[in-house]
Amino acid sequence: MSRKLSAIVFDLDGTLIDSVPDLHAAGNMLLAERGLDPIDLATARSFVGDGGQVFVRRALAERGVTLEPEALTAATERFIALYEAHASDRTHPYPDVPETLEALKAAGYRLGICTNKPERATHKVLALLGLDHLFEAIVGGDTLPVRKPDPAHPAAVLERLGIAPEAACMVGDNEHDSHSGRGAGMPFILMTYGYARTPLDEIPASARLDRFRDLPDALASLA
Questions:
Q1: Could you read off the pLDDT of 2-23 as tens digits, one per residue?
Q2: What CATH number has the domain spanning 7-18+91-222?
Q3: Would you say the CATH fold of 20-84 matches that of 7-18+91-222?
Q4: What is the pLDDT of residues 128-166, one digit of tens each?
C-alpha cells in the first residue's frame, strides 16, 4: 500500500543538532557549583535523550549524589538555566541539515519537532542556529504530561500540524524515537550518527541513514 507523505516529525538532539558539548558543559557547571568533579563528554553523551531531569539525576549519581524530588527539581531548573545561557556555544547542526530541511520545506513537506528537551530551550537553540523558521509545530519534553517513548508525544505534533499518521514519518536517532513514532502510526527513519544507547541493528526502522542529505530519497522510497 503506497502512502502520500506530507509531514515529517523530527527528533532534535542527535538527529538535527549535536548538542552534547553544551549539555556536557552545563552539567559540569552544575556539578562544580556543588563542589563535585566533572564528568567526561562520553559519559554526558550517554545521559542525553530522556530530558533534563534524567540528565541531572544521572550526572549527580555518577558522583555519588542522590537528591530528594524537590531538590532534584531545583537542580534541574538550575541546569536548564545554565544550558539556556550557553545553548549554542558549541552546538551545531549536523552536516547538510539546514540545506536539506530547506529543500524539504520547499518541496511542500510540513515539518515538526518532537523532543525531550524542554520546549523553551528548544525554541531558543533553534533560533540561535537559524532553524526556527522551518518548523510549524514544536512539542518539548515539558509540553505534555508525557514524553518519548510515549507515542502520545509525537502524536501531539501531528495534531498540531493537522496531519494524520499515515501521511507522516518520524525521523530520529534512538530507540525512544522508533518506539514513539511507530507507536503513533508512522514509519520511522533512523539516523545512525546520533546518541542511541541500544545497538543500531536492534532499533526497528523503515530506513537507516548515515547522512542527513539522503533523507529526501528515503522519504520518496517510503511513498
A1: 568 999 999 999 999 999 999 9
A2: 3.40.50.1000
A3: no
A4: 999 999 999 999 999 999 999 999 999 999 999 999 999
18, three cell numbers: 549535536
- The fold of the 20-84 domain, in CATH, is DNA polymerase; domain 1 (1.10.150)
Q: Which amino acid is at 175?
A: E
Q: What is the three-state SS of 130-145?
A: CCHHHCCEEECCCCCC
Annotated active-site residue 96? The verdict is no
Dihedral sign for Cα atoms in the order 117, 121, 127, 129: negative
pTM of the predicted model over 0.70: yes
Q: How far apart, in whole angstroms, are the C-alpha atoms of residue 177 and residue 104? A: 20
Q: How far is CA 110 from CA 52, 59, 62, 104, 116, in A?
A: 28, 36, 41, 8, 20
Provide the pairing of β-strand 110-114 with 207-209: unpaired
* Phi then psi dihedrals of residue 111, to 5 deg: -115, 140
Give every CB contact of residue 123 below 8 A, 6+ residues apart in sequence. Answer: 132, 138
Q: How far apart are the first and last CA of the chain?
A: 9
* Domain boundaries of the chain, sorted by first residue: 7-18+91-222, 20-84
Cell numbers standing for residue 77: 531548573
The catalytically annotated residue of 11, 13, 18, 173 is: 11
Cell of 79: 541546569
